[in-house]
Design goal:
Chain lengths: 145, 145, 145, 145
Amino acid sequence: MGQLERIGVSLDKNLLLTFDTLISKQGYQSRSEAIRNLIRQQLSQRRLSDPKTKAVAAVFMVYDHHATKLSDRLIDLQHCVPAKRGPSHLLQVISSLHVHLNEHDCLEVVVLRGRVSEINSMAENILSLKGVKLGRINLLATEPA
Amino acid sequence: MGQLERIGVSLDKNLLLTFDTLISKQGYQSRSEAIRNLIRQQLSQRRLSDPKTKAVAAVFMVYDHHATKLSDRLIDLQHCVPAKRGPSHLLQVISSLHVHLNEHDCLEVVVLRGRVSEINSMAENILSLKGVKLGRINLLATEPA
Amino acid sequence: MGQLERIGVSLDKNLLLTFDTLISKQGYQSRSEAIRNLIRQQLSQRRLSDPKTKAVAAVFMVYDHHATKLSDRLIDLQHCVPAKRGPSHLLQVISSLHVHLNEHDCLEVVVLRGRVSEINSMAENILSLKGVKLGRINLLATEPA
Amino acid sequence: MGQLERIGVSLDKNLLLTFDTLISKQGYQSRSEAIRNLIRQQLSQRRLSDPKTKAVAAVFMVYDHHATKLSDRLIDLQHCVPAKRGPSHLLQVISSLHVHLNEHDCLEVVVLRGRVSEINSMAENILSLKGVKLGRINLLATEPA
Protein backbone atom coordinates (compact mmCIF):
# COMPACT_ATOMS: atom_id res chain seq x y z
CA MET A 1 0.00 0.00 0.00
CA GLY A 2 1.25 3.45 -0.96
CA GLN A 3 0.95 6.79 0.79
CA LEU A 4 -2.28 7.41 2.71
CA GLU A 5 -4.49 10.45 2.29
CA ARG A 6 -7.33 11.52 4.53
CA ILE A 7 -10.49 12.97 3.04
CA GLY A 8 -13.70 14.29 4.58
CA VAL A 9 -17.11 12.95 3.61
CA SER A 10 -20.36 14.53 4.71
CA LEU A 11 -23.48 12.46 4.91
CA ASP A 12 -26.89 12.33 6.44
CA LYS A 13 -26.91 11.19 10.08
CA ASN A 14 -29.44 8.40 9.47
CA LEU A 15 -27.57 7.08 6.48
CA LEU A 16 -24.40 7.01 8.58
CA LEU A 17 -26.13 5.15 11.42
CA THR A 18 -27.51 2.50 9.08
CA PHE A 19 -24.13 2.12 7.40
CA ASP A 20 -22.36 1.80 10.76
CA THR A 21 -24.79 -0.91 11.84
CA LEU A 22 -24.26 -2.84 8.62
CA ILE A 23 -20.48 -2.70 8.62
CA SER A 24 -20.19 -3.66 12.26
CA LYS A 25 -22.40 -6.69 11.50
CA GLN A 26 -20.17 -7.50 8.54
CA GLY A 27 -17.16 -7.37 10.83
CA TYR A 28 -15.41 -4.24 9.59
CA GLN A 29 -13.13 -2.61 12.12
CA SER A 30 -13.32 0.84 10.59
CA ARG A 31 -15.47 2.88 8.25
CA SER A 32 -12.43 3.72 6.14
CA GLU A 33 -11.89 0.03 5.44
CA ALA A 34 -15.53 -0.44 4.43
CA ILE A 35 -15.56 2.63 2.21
CA ARG A 36 -12.27 1.70 0.55
CA ASN A 37 -13.79 -1.66 -0.33
CA LEU A 38 -16.87 -0.05 -1.86
CA ILE A 39 -14.61 2.16 -3.95
CA ARG A 40 -12.40 -0.70 -5.09
CA GLN A 41 -15.38 -2.85 -6.03
CA GLN A 42 -16.82 -0.07 -8.14
CA LEU A 43 -13.54 0.61 -9.91
CA SER A 44 -13.04 -3.10 -10.57
CA GLN A 45 -16.59 -3.47 -11.85
CA ARG A 46 -16.19 -0.59 -14.21
CA ARG A 47 -12.91 -1.75 -15.67
CA LEU A 48 -14.43 -5.18 -16.32
CA SER A 49 -16.86 -3.64 -18.80
CA ASP A 50 -13.91 -3.20 -21.18
CA PRO A 51 -13.17 -6.56 -22.89
CA LYS A 52 -9.45 -5.70 -23.02
CA THR A 53 -8.98 -5.27 -19.27
CA LYS A 54 -6.59 -7.70 -17.59
CA ALA A 55 -8.39 -9.73 -14.98
CA VAL A 56 -8.28 -12.80 -12.86
CA ALA A 57 -11.28 -15.10 -12.83
CA ALA A 58 -12.63 -18.08 -11.02
CA VAL A 59 -14.75 -20.41 -13.13
CA PHE A 60 -16.93 -22.24 -10.69
CA MET A 61 -18.79 -25.35 -11.89
CA VAL A 62 -20.69 -28.39 -10.68
CA TYR A 63 -20.31 -31.48 -12.81
CA ASP A 64 -21.17 -35.12 -12.86
CA HIS A 65 -17.94 -37.01 -12.43
CA HIS A 66 -19.45 -40.05 -14.12
CA ALA A 67 -19.58 -38.09 -17.36
CA THR A 68 -17.11 -40.00 -19.48
CA LYS A 69 -13.78 -38.31 -19.71
CA LEU A 70 -14.91 -34.95 -18.44
CA SER A 71 -11.97 -34.78 -16.04
CA ASP A 72 -9.61 -35.58 -18.87
CA ARG A 73 -11.10 -32.94 -21.10
CA LEU A 74 -10.98 -30.37 -18.31
CA ILE A 75 -7.33 -31.07 -17.79
CA ASP A 76 -6.69 -30.95 -21.54
CA LEU A 77 -8.45 -27.63 -21.82
CA GLN A 78 -6.43 -26.24 -18.95
CA HIS A 79 -3.13 -27.46 -20.30
CA CYS A 80 -3.60 -26.73 -23.95
CA VAL A 81 -3.89 -23.02 -23.37
CA PRO A 82 -0.23 -22.03 -23.36
CA ALA A 83 0.63 -24.68 -25.95
CA LYS A 84 -1.97 -23.51 -28.41
CA ARG A 85 -1.32 -19.83 -27.99
CA GLY A 86 2.38 -19.70 -27.30
CA PRO A 87 4.10 -19.16 -23.97
CA SER A 88 3.91 -15.40 -24.21
CA HIS A 89 0.15 -15.39 -24.36
CA LEU A 90 -1.72 -13.73 -21.57
CA LEU A 91 -4.41 -16.30 -20.95
CA GLN A 92 -3.29 -18.71 -18.28
CA VAL A 93 -4.94 -21.31 -16.13
CA ILE A 94 -3.23 -20.79 -12.82
CA SER A 95 -4.70 -23.35 -10.56
CA SER A 96 -7.75 -25.41 -9.80
CA LEU A 97 -9.56 -26.80 -6.80
CA HIS A 98 -11.72 -29.89 -6.72
CA VAL A 99 -14.36 -30.78 -4.12
CA HIS A 100 -16.57 -33.90 -3.90
CA LEU A 101 -20.11 -32.75 -3.23
CA ASN A 102 -21.97 -36.06 -3.23
CA GLU A 103 -21.97 -39.45 -4.95
CA HIS A 104 -22.61 -37.84 -8.35
CA ASP A 105 -21.37 -34.32 -8.27
CA CYS A 106 -18.07 -32.51 -7.98
CA LEU A 107 -17.39 -28.83 -7.67
CA GLU A 108 -14.39 -27.48 -9.51
CA VAL A 109 -13.00 -23.98 -9.32
CA VAL A 110 -10.54 -23.04 -12.07
CA VAL A 111 -8.56 -19.84 -11.64
CA LEU A 112 -7.69 -18.09 -14.90
CA ARG A 113 -5.80 -14.96 -15.76
CA GLY A 114 -6.03 -12.93 -18.95
CA ARG A 115 -8.03 -10.29 -20.80
CA VAL A 116 -11.75 -10.19 -19.99
CA SER A 117 -12.73 -11.29 -23.50
CA GLU A 118 -10.31 -14.24 -23.51
CA ILE A 119 -11.35 -15.37 -20.05
CA ASN A 120 -15.01 -15.27 -21.02
CA SER A 121 -14.48 -17.36 -24.09
CA MET A 122 -12.35 -19.88 -22.19
CA ALA A 123 -15.00 -20.04 -19.46
CA GLU A 124 -17.71 -20.69 -22.02
CA ASN A 125 -15.66 -23.56 -23.38
CA ILE A 126 -15.35 -25.05 -19.93
CA LEU A 127 -19.02 -24.57 -19.02
CA SER A 128 -20.19 -26.17 -22.26
CA LEU A 129 -18.38 -29.47 -21.63
CA LYS A 130 -20.73 -32.44 -21.52
CA GLY A 131 -21.52 -33.26 -17.88
CA VAL A 132 -21.12 -29.73 -16.54
CA LYS A 133 -24.46 -28.99 -14.86
CA LEU A 134 -24.08 -25.54 -13.42
CA GLY A 135 -21.44 -22.92 -13.78
CA ARG A 136 -20.63 -19.36 -13.11
CA ILE A 137 -17.74 -17.09 -13.71
CA ASN A 138 -16.37 -14.42 -11.40
CA LEU A 139 -14.05 -11.72 -12.63
CA LEU A 140 -11.92 -9.25 -10.72
CA ALA A 141 -9.94 -6.54 -12.50
CA THR A 142 -6.30 -6.67 -11.49
CA GLU A 143 -4.92 -3.68 -13.29
CA PRO A 144 -3.55 -0.91 -11.09
CA ALA A 145 -6.18 1.16 -9.34
CA MET B 1 -32.48 15.14 4.08
CA GLY B 2 -31.76 15.12 7.80
CA GLN B 3 -28.82 16.42 9.79
CA LEU B 4 -25.40 16.13 8.17
CA GLU B 5 -22.34 14.57 9.78
CA ARG B 6 -18.77 14.79 8.58
CA ILE B 7 -16.50 11.75 8.81
CA GLY B 8 -12.88 11.18 7.87
CA VAL B 9 -11.81 8.41 5.53
CA SER B 10 -8.20 7.46 4.93
CA LEU B 11 -7.21 5.78 1.74
CA ASP B 12 -4.28 5.07 -0.49
CA LYS B 13 -3.26 8.01 -2.69
CA ASN B 14 -3.44 5.99 -5.92
CA LEU B 15 -6.85 4.61 -5.09
CA LEU B 16 -8.05 8.15 -4.41
CA LEU B 17 -6.65 9.44 -7.71
CA THR B 18 -8.34 6.68 -9.70
CA PHE B 19 -11.60 7.26 -7.86
CA ASP B 20 -11.43 11.02 -8.47
CA THR B 21 -10.87 10.43 -12.18
CA LEU B 22 -13.82 8.08 -12.38
CA ILE B 23 -16.28 10.27 -10.53
CA SER B 24 -15.34 13.39 -12.43
CA LYS B 25 -15.97 11.45 -15.66
CA GLN B 26 -19.31 10.30 -14.26
CA GLY B 27 -20.18 13.91 -13.57
CA TYR B 28 -20.14 13.96 -9.77
CA GLN B 29 -19.54 17.38 -8.26
CA SER B 30 -18.12 16.07 -5.01
CA ARG B 31 -16.57 12.97 -3.53
CA SER B 32 -19.12 13.01 -0.71
CA GLU B 33 -21.95 12.68 -3.22
CA ALA B 34 -20.25 9.74 -4.96
CA ILE B 35 -19.47 7.97 -1.68
CA ARG B 36 -22.99 8.51 -0.35
CA ASN B 37 -24.32 6.85 -3.48
CA LEU B 38 -22.02 3.85 -3.07
CA ILE B 39 -23.23 3.48 0.51
CA ARG B 40 -26.90 3.78 -0.41
CA GLN B 41 -26.58 1.26 -3.21
CA GLN B 42 -24.98 -1.24 -0.89
CA LEU B 43 -27.61 -0.79 1.81
CA SER B 44 -30.41 -1.11 -0.75
CA GLN B 45 -28.81 -4.21 -2.25
CA ARG B 46 -28.52 -5.86 1.09
CA ARG B 47 -32.07 -5.17 2.18
CA LEU B 48 -33.34 -6.64 -1.08
CA SER B 49 -31.96 -10.03 -0.10
CA ASP B 50 -34.79 -10.27 2.44
CA PRO B 51 -38.02 -11.31 0.64
CA LYS B 52 -40.09 -9.26 3.10
CA THR B 53 -38.42 -5.90 2.39
CA LYS B 54 -40.65 -3.21 0.92
CA ALA B 55 -39.41 -2.15 -2.46
CA VAL B 56 -40.27 -0.42 -5.64
CA ALA B 57 -39.58 -2.17 -8.92
CA ALA B 58 -39.56 -1.52 -12.61
CA VAL B 59 -40.44 -4.49 -14.77
CA PHE B 60 -38.90 -3.78 -18.11
CA MET B 61 -40.01 -5.87 -21.10
CA VAL B 62 -39.94 -6.02 -24.87
CA TYR B 63 -42.96 -7.59 -26.48
CA ASP B 64 -44.51 -8.18 -29.83
CA HIS B 65 -47.58 -6.01 -30.03
CA HIS B 66 -49.10 -8.31 -32.61
CA ALA B 67 -49.37 -11.00 -29.95
CA THR B 68 -53.10 -11.34 -29.63
CA LYS B 69 -54.49 -9.57 -26.63
CA LEU B 70 -51.18 -9.13 -24.84
CA SER B 71 -51.93 -5.48 -24.16
CA ASP B 72 -55.30 -6.44 -22.74
CA ARG B 73 -53.80 -9.09 -20.52
CA LEU B 74 -51.09 -6.72 -19.33
CA ILE B 75 -53.74 -4.19 -18.38
CA ASP B 76 -55.84 -6.89 -16.70
CA LEU B 77 -52.86 -8.09 -14.72
CA GLN B 78 -52.07 -4.56 -13.62
CA HIS B 79 -55.62 -3.78 -12.62
CA CYS B 80 -56.56 -7.03 -10.98
CA VAL B 81 -53.94 -6.69 -8.30
CA PRO B 82 -55.84 -4.59 -5.78
CA ALA B 83 -59.13 -6.28 -6.67
CA LYS B 84 -57.80 -9.77 -6.10
CA ARG B 85 -55.94 -8.97 -2.95
CA GLY B 86 -58.09 -6.29 -1.38
CA PRO B 87 -57.47 -2.57 -1.32
CA SER B 88 -55.26 -2.74 1.73
CA HIS B 89 -52.77 -5.01 0.08
CA LEU B 90 -49.25 -3.76 -0.36
CA LEU B 91 -48.64 -4.85 -3.91
CA GLN B 92 -49.53 -2.08 -6.29
CA VAL B 93 -48.94 -1.32 -9.90
CA ILE B 94 -48.26 2.38 -9.82
CA SER B 95 -47.71 3.34 -13.37
CA SER B 96 -46.50 2.18 -16.73
CA LEU B 97 -44.72 3.57 -19.73
CA HIS B 98 -45.02 2.34 -23.28
CA VAL B 99 -42.56 2.92 -26.13
CA HIS B 100 -42.76 1.78 -29.78
CA LEU B 101 -39.41 0.32 -30.73
CA ASN B 102 -40.09 -0.81 -34.30
CA GLU B 103 -42.83 -2.27 -36.46
CA HIS B 104 -43.04 -5.37 -34.28
CA ASP B 105 -41.80 -4.56 -30.85
CA CYS B 106 -42.83 -2.40 -27.96
CA LEU B 107 -41.02 -1.69 -24.74
CA GLU B 108 -43.11 -1.45 -21.62
CA VAL B 109 -41.92 -0.43 -18.17
CA VAL B 110 -44.31 -1.25 -15.32
CA VAL B 111 -43.58 0.29 -11.92
CA LEU B 112 -44.67 -1.84 -8.97
CA ARG B 113 -44.52 -1.40 -5.25
CA GLY B 114 -44.68 -4.11 -2.60
CA ARG B 115 -42.66 -6.71 -0.75
CA VAL B 116 -39.72 -8.20 -2.66
CA SER B 117 -41.34 -11.65 -2.80
CA GLU B 118 -44.65 -10.31 -4.09
CA ILE B 119 -43.01 -8.11 -6.68
CA ASN B 120 -40.94 -11.00 -7.96
CA SER B 121 -43.91 -13.23 -8.37
CA MET B 122 -45.93 -10.50 -10.10
CA ALA B 123 -42.96 -9.80 -12.38
CA GLU B 124 -42.71 -13.46 -13.30
CA ASN B 125 -46.37 -13.45 -14.23
CA ILE B 126 -45.84 -10.47 -16.48
CA LEU B 127 -42.69 -11.83 -18.10
CA SER B 128 -44.32 -15.18 -18.85
CA LEU B 129 -47.15 -13.67 -20.90
CA LYS B 130 -47.24 -14.98 -24.46
CA GLY B 131 -45.51 -12.47 -26.74
CA VAL B 132 -43.11 -11.08 -24.15
CA LYS B 133 -39.68 -11.63 -25.69
CA LEU B 134 -37.28 -10.19 -23.19
CA GLY B 135 -37.69 -8.91 -19.72
CA ARG B 136 -35.87 -7.84 -16.66
CA ILE B 137 -36.77 -6.62 -13.24
CA ASN B 138 -35.08 -3.90 -11.23
CA LEU B 139 -35.66 -3.53 -7.52
CA LEU B 140 -34.79 -0.67 -5.20
CA ALA B 141 -35.37 -0.92 -1.45
CA THR B 142 -37.42 2.02 -0.26
CA GLU B 143 -37.44 1.40 3.45
CA PRO B 144 -35.71 4.01 5.59
CA ALA B 145 -31.95 3.98 5.35
CA MET C 1 -42.33 -13.61 -35.91
CA GLY C 2 -40.82 -15.55 -38.79
CA GLN C 3 -41.08 -19.20 -39.76
CA LEU C 4 -41.31 -21.69 -36.90
CA GLU C 5 -39.10 -24.74 -36.50
CA ARG C 6 -39.60 -27.63 -34.11
CA ILE C 7 -36.62 -29.18 -32.37
CA GLY C 8 -36.29 -32.07 -29.93
CA VAL C 9 -34.62 -31.68 -26.54
CA SER C 10 -33.81 -34.59 -24.28
CA LEU C 11 -33.48 -34.05 -20.58
CA ASP C 12 -33.57 -35.81 -17.27
CA LYS C 13 -37.09 -36.58 -16.02
CA ASN C 14 -36.55 -34.89 -12.65
CA LEU C 15 -35.11 -31.77 -14.22
CA LEU C 16 -38.14 -31.60 -16.51
CA LEU C 17 -40.58 -32.02 -13.59
CA THR C 18 -38.94 -29.22 -11.62
CA PHE C 19 -38.89 -26.98 -14.67
CA ASP C 20 -42.56 -27.69 -15.40
CA THR C 21 -43.49 -26.81 -11.83
CA LEU C 22 -41.55 -23.56 -12.00
CA ILE C 23 -42.94 -22.38 -15.32
CA SER C 24 -46.51 -23.21 -14.42
CA LYS C 25 -46.05 -21.14 -11.25
CA GLN C 26 -44.61 -18.33 -13.37
CA GLY C 27 -47.68 -18.48 -15.56
CA TYR C 28 -46.22 -19.86 -18.79
CA GLN C 29 -48.72 -21.60 -21.02
CA SER C 30 -46.16 -23.77 -22.77
CA ARG C 31 -42.65 -25.08 -22.34
CA SER C 32 -41.69 -23.73 -25.75
CA GLU C 33 -42.53 -20.20 -24.62
CA ALA C 34 -40.44 -20.58 -21.46
CA ILE C 35 -37.48 -22.07 -23.31
CA ARG C 36 -37.63 -19.42 -26.04
CA ASN C 37 -37.43 -16.78 -23.32
CA LEU C 38 -34.38 -18.42 -21.72
CA ILE C 39 -32.69 -18.48 -25.11
CA ARG C 40 -33.52 -14.86 -25.89
CA GLN C 41 -32.30 -13.69 -22.50
CA GLN C 42 -29.00 -15.45 -22.97
CA LEU C 43 -28.47 -14.06 -26.46
CA SER C 44 -29.34 -10.56 -25.27
CA GLN C 45 -27.01 -10.88 -22.28
CA ARG C 46 -24.16 -11.99 -24.44
CA ARG C 47 -24.55 -9.22 -27.00
CA LEU C 48 -24.56 -6.66 -24.21
CA SER C 49 -20.99 -7.57 -23.30
CA ASP C 50 -19.90 -5.81 -26.51
CA PRO C 51 -19.84 -2.01 -25.90
CA LYS C 52 -20.84 -1.39 -29.52
CA THR C 53 -24.11 -3.34 -29.42
CA LYS C 54 -27.28 -1.34 -30.00
CA ALA C 55 -29.53 -1.50 -26.99
CA VAL C 56 -32.44 0.03 -25.24
CA ALA C 57 -32.11 0.88 -21.57
CA ALA C 58 -34.17 2.02 -18.67
CA VAL C 59 -32.33 4.18 -16.16
CA PHE C 60 -34.23 3.82 -12.95
CA MET C 61 -33.54 6.29 -10.13
CA VAL C 62 -34.90 7.54 -6.84
CA TYR C 63 -34.25 11.20 -6.14
CA ASP C 64 -35.12 13.89 -3.70
CA HIS C 65 -37.35 16.34 -5.52
CA HIS C 66 -36.35 19.09 -3.14
CA ALA C 67 -32.85 18.97 -4.55
CA THR C 68 -32.59 22.33 -6.18
CA LYS C 69 -33.08 22.20 -9.90
CA LEU C 70 -32.61 18.48 -10.25
CA SER C 71 -35.73 18.20 -12.39
CA ASP C 72 -34.45 20.98 -14.61
CA ARG C 73 -31.08 19.37 -14.99
CA LEU C 74 -32.63 16.01 -15.74
CA ILE C 75 -34.71 17.58 -18.47
CA ASP C 76 -31.67 19.44 -19.80
CA LEU C 77 -29.65 16.28 -19.90
CA GLN C 78 -32.41 14.49 -21.72
CA HIS C 79 -32.91 17.22 -24.26
CA CYS C 80 -29.34 18.19 -24.92
CA VAL C 81 -28.46 14.79 -26.28
CA PRO C 82 -29.50 15.17 -29.89
CA ALA C 83 -28.53 18.84 -29.92
CA LYS C 84 -25.03 18.18 -28.67
CA ARG C 85 -24.36 15.20 -30.83
CA GLY C 86 -26.28 16.03 -33.97
CA PRO C 87 -29.62 14.67 -35.06
CA SER C 88 -28.12 11.60 -36.70
CA HIS C 89 -26.56 10.39 -33.51
CA LEU C 90 -27.70 7.09 -32.14
CA LEU C 91 -28.09 7.99 -28.49
CA GLN C 92 -31.63 9.09 -27.81
CA VAL C 93 -33.72 9.64 -24.77
CA ILE C 94 -37.05 8.24 -25.85
CA SER C 95 -39.31 8.81 -22.94
CA SER C 96 -39.52 9.08 -19.22
CA LEU C 97 -41.90 8.21 -16.42
CA HIS C 98 -42.20 9.95 -13.10
CA VAL C 99 -43.75 8.57 -9.90
CA HIS C 100 -44.15 10.26 -6.51
CA LEU C 101 -43.02 7.80 -3.85
CA ASN C 102 -43.43 9.89 -0.70
CA GLU C 103 -43.10 13.46 0.56
CA HIS C 104 -39.38 13.51 -0.31
CA ASP C 105 -38.71 11.03 -3.00
CA CYS C 106 -39.60 10.53 -6.62
CA LEU C 107 -38.89 7.61 -8.89
CA GLU C 108 -37.98 8.38 -12.45
CA VAL C 109 -37.48 5.92 -15.26
CA VAL C 110 -35.71 7.27 -18.34
CA VAL C 111 -35.74 5.12 -21.47
CA LEU C 112 -32.68 5.50 -23.67
CA ARG C 113 -31.61 3.99 -26.93
CA GLY C 114 -28.07 3.76 -28.31
CA ARG C 115 -24.84 1.79 -28.16
CA VAL C 116 -24.10 0.06 -24.85
CA SER C 117 -21.07 2.28 -24.17
CA GLU C 118 -22.97 5.51 -24.88
CA ILE C 119 -25.95 4.46 -22.78
CA ASN C 120 -23.70 3.58 -19.87
CA SER C 121 -21.95 6.90 -19.94
CA MET C 122 -25.25 8.81 -20.23
CA ALA C 123 -26.66 6.75 -17.34
CA GLU C 124 -23.64 7.58 -15.20
CA ASN C 125 -24.22 11.25 -15.88
CA ILE C 126 -27.81 10.95 -14.78
CA LEU C 127 -27.05 8.90 -11.67
CA SER C 128 -24.36 11.33 -10.55
CA LEU C 129 -26.69 14.33 -10.43
CA LYS C 130 -26.90 15.90 -7.00
CA GLY C 131 -30.01 14.61 -5.24
CA VAL C 132 -30.15 11.22 -6.97
CA LYS C 133 -30.08 8.70 -4.13
CA LEU C 134 -30.32 5.36 -5.78
CA GLY C 135 -30.10 4.28 -9.34
CA ARG C 136 -29.79 1.33 -11.56
CA ILE C 137 -29.59 0.73 -15.25
CA ASN C 138 -31.18 -2.07 -17.23
CA LEU C 139 -30.10 -2.90 -20.74
CA LEU C 140 -31.72 -5.08 -23.36
CA ALA C 141 -30.03 -5.80 -26.68
CA THR C 142 -32.32 -4.93 -29.57
CA GLU C 143 -30.26 -6.05 -32.51
CA PRO C 144 -31.74 -8.86 -34.59
CA ALA C 145 -31.55 -12.26 -32.99
CA MET D 1 -28.48 -38.90 -14.26
CA GLY D 2 -31.98 -40.38 -14.12
CA GLN D 3 -34.38 -41.37 -16.88
CA LEU D 4 -34.34 -39.21 -19.99
CA GLU D 5 -37.41 -37.66 -21.59
CA ARG D 6 -37.66 -36.07 -24.99
CA ILE D 7 -39.73 -32.94 -25.48
CA GLY D 8 -40.48 -30.81 -28.52
CA VAL D 9 -39.81 -27.08 -28.60
CA SER D 10 -40.99 -24.79 -31.39
CA LEU D 11 -39.17 -21.59 -32.07
CA ASP D 12 -38.60 -18.98 -34.70
CA LYS D 13 -36.12 -20.01 -37.38
CA ASN D 14 -33.93 -16.91 -36.91
CA LEU D 15 -33.81 -17.32 -33.17
CA LEU D 16 -32.75 -20.94 -33.64
CA LEU D 17 -30.00 -19.98 -36.09
CA THR D 18 -28.57 -17.37 -33.74
CA PHE D 19 -28.72 -19.80 -30.84
CA ASP D 20 -27.00 -22.53 -32.86
CA THR D 21 -24.22 -20.13 -33.81
CA LEU D 22 -23.70 -19.12 -30.20
CA ILE D 23 -23.64 -22.61 -28.74
CA SER D 24 -21.30 -23.94 -31.38
CA LYS D 25 -18.94 -21.04 -30.56
CA GLN D 26 -19.27 -21.90 -26.87
CA GLY D 27 -18.31 -25.47 -27.66
CA TYR D 28 -21.58 -27.28 -26.99
CA GLN D 29 -21.96 -30.56 -28.80
CA SER D 30 -25.75 -30.54 -28.79
CA ARG D 31 -28.66 -28.17 -28.38
CA SER D 32 -30.11 -30.38 -25.67
CA GLU D 33 -26.99 -29.91 -23.56
CA ALA D 34 -27.13 -26.13 -23.99
CA ILE D 35 -30.84 -25.94 -23.19
CA ARG D 36 -30.48 -28.21 -20.15
CA ASN D 37 -27.82 -25.83 -18.85
CA LEU D 38 -30.06 -22.79 -19.33
CA ILE D 39 -32.82 -24.58 -17.42
CA ARG D 40 -30.53 -25.64 -14.58
CA GLN D 41 -29.08 -22.15 -14.22
CA GLN D 42 -32.55 -20.65 -13.97
CA LEU D 43 -33.73 -23.18 -11.39
CA SER D 44 -30.57 -22.66 -9.33
CA GLN D 45 -30.92 -18.89 -9.55
CA ARG D 46 -34.49 -19.01 -8.39
CA ARG D 47 -33.85 -21.28 -5.43
CA LEU D 48 -31.05 -18.97 -4.29
CA SER D 49 -33.58 -16.20 -3.70
CA ASP D 50 -34.77 -18.15 -0.66
CA PRO D 51 -32.36 -17.54 2.26
CA LYS D 52 -33.00 -21.07 3.55
CA THR D 53 -31.88 -22.90 0.41
CA LYS D 54 -28.86 -25.17 0.80
CA ALA D 55 -26.06 -24.03 -1.42
CA VAL D 56 -22.39 -24.25 -2.11
CA ALA D 57 -20.43 -21.06 -2.52
CA ALA D 58 -17.04 -19.85 -3.56
CA VAL D 59 -15.85 -16.71 -1.81
CA PHE D 60 -13.31 -15.22 -4.11
CA MET D 61 -11.02 -12.47 -2.77
CA VAL D 62 -7.85 -10.54 -3.49
CA TYR D 63 -5.86 -9.54 -0.44
CA ASP D 64 -2.59 -8.00 0.54
CA HIS D 65 -0.54 -10.72 2.15
CA HIS D 66 1.48 -8.13 4.03
CA ALA D 67 -1.62 -7.28 6.04
CA THR D 68 -0.61 -8.43 9.47
CA LYS D 69 -2.09 -11.73 10.39
CA LEU D 70 -4.70 -11.79 7.69
CA SER D 71 -3.76 -15.35 6.76
CA ASP D 72 -4.05 -16.38 10.38
CA ARG D 73 -7.42 -14.74 10.75
CA LEU D 74 -8.67 -16.33 7.55
CA ILE D 75 -7.65 -19.73 8.83
CA ASP D 76 -9.23 -19.01 12.22
CA LEU D 77 -12.45 -17.96 10.59
CA GLN D 78 -12.50 -21.09 8.50
CA HIS D 79 -11.76 -23.38 11.40
CA CYS D 80 -13.92 -21.82 14.04
CA VAL D 81 -17.10 -22.49 12.15
CA PRO D 82 -17.88 -26.01 13.29
CA ALA D 83 -16.45 -25.35 16.74
CA LYS D 84 -18.59 -22.30 17.34
CA ARG D 85 -21.74 -23.74 15.97
CA GLY D 86 -21.43 -27.37 16.90
CA PRO D 87 -20.57 -30.29 14.69
CA SER D 88 -24.12 -30.73 13.47
CA HIS D 89 -24.26 -27.28 11.98
CA LEU D 90 -24.74 -26.97 8.29
CA LEU D 91 -22.25 -24.23 7.55
CA GLN D 92 -18.92 -25.71 6.56
CA VAL D 93 -15.78 -24.44 5.00
CA ILE D 94 -14.85 -27.27 2.69
CA SER D 95 -11.65 -26.21 1.09
CA SER D 96 -9.61 -23.28 -0.06
CA LEU D 97 -7.22 -22.40 -2.84
CA HIS D 98 -4.47 -19.83 -2.69
CA VAL D 99 -2.73 -18.14 -5.64
CA HIS D 100 0.11 -15.57 -5.62
CA LEU D 101 -0.84 -12.80 -8.03
CA ASN D 102 2.11 -10.44 -7.59
CA GLU D 103 4.52 -9.13 -4.95
CA HIS D 104 1.64 -7.70 -2.90
CA ASP D 105 -1.50 -9.57 -3.71
CA CYS D 106 -2.87 -13.03 -3.26
CA LEU D 107 -6.08 -14.52 -4.55
CA GLU D 108 -7.92 -16.88 -2.26
CA VAL D 109 -10.99 -18.93 -3.08
CA VAL D 110 -12.82 -20.39 -0.10
CA VAL D 111 -15.49 -23.02 -0.78
CA LEU D 112 -18.35 -23.01 1.72
CA ARG D 113 -21.46 -25.08 2.10
CA GLY D 114 -24.61 -24.16 4.01
CA ARG D 115 -27.85 -22.22 3.85
CA VAL D 116 -27.81 -19.11 1.63
CA SER D 117 -28.25 -16.77 4.61
CA GLU D 118 -25.43 -18.37 6.60
CA ILE D 119 -23.08 -18.40 3.65
CA ASN D 120 -23.74 -14.75 2.96
CA SER D 121 -23.02 -13.73 6.51
CA MET D 122 -19.84 -15.83 6.64
CA ALA D 123 -18.74 -14.33 3.32
CA GLU D 124 -19.30 -10.82 4.63
CA ASN D 125 -17.11 -11.64 7.59
CA ILE D 126 -14.35 -12.84 5.31
CA LEU D 127 -14.61 -9.90 2.92
CA SER D 128 -14.50 -7.38 5.76
CA LEU D 129 -11.13 -8.59 7.09
CA LYS D 130 -8.48 -5.89 7.10
CA GLY D 131 -6.32 -6.30 3.99
CA VAL D 132 -9.00 -7.83 1.78
CA LYS D 133 -9.17 -5.51 -1.23
CA LEU D 134 -11.71 -7.05 -3.51
CA GLY D 135 -14.12 -9.86 -3.08
CA ARG D 136 -17.08 -11.54 -4.58
CA ILE D 137 -19.27 -14.45 -3.69
CA ASN D 138 -20.73 -17.03 -6.01
CA LEU D 139 -23.56 -19.28 -4.97
CA LEU D 140 -24.93 -22.39 -6.61
CA ALA D 141 -28.03 -24.15 -5.29
CA THR D 142 -27.29 -27.81 -4.65
CA GLU D 143 -30.69 -29.06 -3.65
CA PRO D 144 -32.24 -31.63 -5.94
CA ALA D 145 -33.57 -30.26 -9.21
